[in-house]
Design goal:
By secondary structure, the chain is an alpha/beta fold. The protein has nine helices and twelve strands. Strands 7-8-9-6-5-4-3-2-1-10-11-12 form a twelve-stranded mixed beta sheet, covered by helices on one side. β1, α1 and β2 form a beta-alpha-beta unit. The longest helix is centred in the N-terminal third of the chain and has 13 residues. 44% of the residues are buried.
Length: 327
């Protein structure tokens, strides 16, 4: 079987698929004014288009899928999308990234459909802080959903928190208490500059290495990285059931271990979160007869993938905010 490999020798067994642009939260670092549909934007891929896309990616070595948005739980057919992925030969890890708004009501159905990995955005454990960051006072429902998920035998549950100066960067003690008895991973994500958050970035950006030095001083130790892992550097501590991950996009050699590609909700292949080019795949998702042509297109695009992003130079590509391509 041929696999997706770029000119730098990196292979790509991991696909992040956005299934919707819309989001019902107003996170200050992403959509502070809330989601507004842009007239003329193409509709999200339909279920049959998604199924064809997944079969093509699986044919070139994709084994790990993450379903993203926007907020993917806003799609009424999310369980069907998960089931389509679970029924695709070759895909053995199916993850979902969600803001958790419907987690307490829907997580059992997602697990039954075939979901194996779950990521939930939880930017603070304090209700006031959480509401200030996300625009919604939904923390209690969200944490109740996490507790339900912990009882459902997921392969992994991770909580995501964007690290923000003066908003949640003083919350480590509360997180330590939360992780003491819960076998999940909290991942701190260094705030990234996008096309529309320059002022916010300057005000709230915290270097991830500052956090890592604090963790090491508190006895947390860096763990070996799994071959198919995402970008997080993961830390463990003998006194805690949970772990802490750090995603540091501005760190040296961050892109050297890149193993993932992205497809937008409208079916455009993005070789990099902060790239300048989207390769349209949707015309080849209308019929099963186009499978071989679609596979050939995927294999032919990896020569365009750059060695790294241009964030250090302030180059954010076509990513105006993270909801447009799934983060």
């Amino acid at each position: 079987m041929r696999v997706l490999e770029d000119r730098f020798g990196r292979t790509f067994p991991y696909l992040r698929l956005s299934v919707i642009e819309a989001c019902n939260f107003r996170c200050s670092y992403c959509l502070p004014g809330g989601y507004r549909a842009i007239p003329g934007r193409p509709a999200a891929l339909e279920l049959d288009e998604i199924a064809r896309l997944l079969r093509a990616f699986a044919a070139v070595g994709m084994r790990k899928l993450r379903i993203t948005g926007g907020e993917p739980s806003l799609r009424k057919d999310l369980a069907d999308i998960i089931a389509a992925a679970a029924g695709t030969v070759g895909i053995d890890k199916i993850g979902l990234t969600t803001n958790g708004c419907l987690l307490h009501r829907r997580v059992e159905g997602w697990r039954e459909a075939g979901l194996t990995h779950l990521n939930v955005s939880v930017d603070a454990l304090d209700r006031e802080r959480f509401a200030r960051i996300t625009g919604h006072d939904r923390l209690d429902d969200l944490l109740a959903g996490v507790e339900r998920a912990l009882s459902l035998d997921f392969a992994a549950i991770k909580l995501n928190a964007v690290l923000l100066r003066d908003l949640n960067d003083d919350q480590l003690p509360a997180w330590f208490d939360y992780l003491r008895e819960r076998p999940l991973t909290l991942r701190f994500i260094e705030l990234m500059r996008t096309g529309d958050n320059g002022e916010y970035f300057a005000r709230h950006h915290v270097r991830a290495d500052t956090l890592e030095r604090t963790l090491e001083a508190d006895g947390w130790r860096l763990m070996p990285r799994a071959a198919d892992a995402g970008p997080a550097r993961e830390y463990a501590h003998t006194d805690y059931a949970g772990r802490i991950g750090v995603i540091a996009p501005y760190s040296k050699d961050f892109c050297a271990g890149c193993n993932r590609l992205r497809v937008t909700s409208a079916g455009d292949l993005r070789l990099c979160l902060f790239g300048n080019v989207g390769i349209p795949l949707r015309p080849l998702l209308q019929s099963d007869d186009d499978h071989d042509t679609l596979v050939a297109r995927l294999l032919g695009q990896l020569g365009l993938k750059a060695l790294g992003h241009g964030l250090h130079a302030g180059e954010t590509g076509t990513t105006t905010n993270l909801s447009t391509v799934g983060g």
